[in-house]
Amino acid sequence: MSHPLVNQLRFARSEFQRCLADVSQEDALLHIGQMNCISWIIGHLANQEHRNFVTRAQGKDLFPGLNDLVGYGKPASTPPLAEMWHTWQVATAEADVFLDTINGKDLGSYLETSPGVILSENLGLNILRVTYHYWFHTGEAHAIRQMLGHTDLPQFVGDMSEVVLR
Q: Is residue 141, in this structure, part of any structural domain at all?
């Protein structure tokens, strides 16, 4: 059984996917004002999971250059939607390899940002940060979709029972 914090992260991921269901390539590449485009948002969240739970936790770099494309503070980019969804799917699946091993004792441990350099937040806070990051960008993506005139968007948080209670 997964740790409850991991289940919350998985629920945030599922709501992110639900918010972005059926977004077209054309709409995913639009920049509205200062907002990021949807394809960037997907890659950005993939980057955070990849950096924390794949590279730092497992020592693997599946996507060299991803941070330069969609990382925090980097120049705006407009990556292809299909490529970002693929990157997100691979990154989250590989992150789950690590996340499935976590128990309560692990939450107080620290990941290294580079050899000998410890991340300032423990693993429990890091999982919460990633979870909240999903909610932040889910809201941003939802707002973008509203501005694009999309209809029939999710109106409330979905069913948690299948993700959180498993």
A: yes
